[in-house]
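Chapter summary example.
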Amino acid sequence: MEISRSIQSLGTLIKALDDGSNEAIQIAQDTIDEMAQGVYDELKRTTPQDTSGLVGSLTIQSTQNQNSYGKEIFYDGYDKNGQPYQAIANSLNIGRMSYKGQKRKRGRKNHEPAQGARLFINNAQRQLKGLDDKIRENVIGNINDKLNGR
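The structure predicted for these 150 residues follows.
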């Protein structure tokens, strides 16, 4: 009696996993979309406004092929001086290095921390920490819902 209940439960699990493979892929893609949109929104909010066109150049695109799925978020295009917006954003993100009035010697780091670093890109990227765990949690939650008849 106990064995047949275990076999029945195992059969339900196998069916849920089999039926859910395409659904698991969709759940993973939806989770990636949701988290990437959060990063995009944060960058839109925190990108320095004092640079003409930088905020407007922020772009989000899907990247997908047979073996992978993802999102690319970047600053697209060039400013009126021909500088790539992505290079401007990177520069504003990390600031500039300040040397202590001496030539930099090979192998020695004789500079102070970056001045003017805004770290808006770094801070937005931190939202992606734990993406794998979030996907796993959502897929397992979906499987549990199916097993429990929800």
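To summarize the output: The chain is about 50% helix and 15% strand.
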